[in-house]
Amino acid sequence: MHVFILCLNYTIVTLRFKDSIKETNTSLIGE
């Protein structure tokens, strides 16, 4: 169960990281 929570947190962090990269690339291309 503890491992499952760690995997879940890792997935959430990875998704947020990817979203932030997309936003950064979009803003750079927009400028």
Describe this structure in words.
Keywords: Plasmid. The chain is mainly α and 31 residues long. Helix content is 94%, strand content 0%. It has one helix and no strands. The longest helix is centred in the middle third of the chain and has 29 residues. The mean pLDDT is 89.
Which features does this protein show?
31 residues, mainly alpha, 1 helix
Write the layout of secondary structure elements.
Elements: H1 2-30
Mind describing the biggest β-sheet?
none
What is the approximate shape? rod-shaped
Order of helices and strands: H
Helix content: over 70%
The number of distinct β-strands equals 0
| H/I helix tally | 1
Average pLDDT value? 89
End-to-end C-alpha gap: 45 Å
Outline the low-pLDDT stretches. none
Instruction: State which percent range the strand residues make up.
Output: under 5%
Structural class: mainly alpha
Please give the radius of gyration in angstroms.
Answer: 14 Å
Short note summarizing the structure:
This protein is an all-alpha fold and 31 residues long. The protein is built from one helix and no strands.
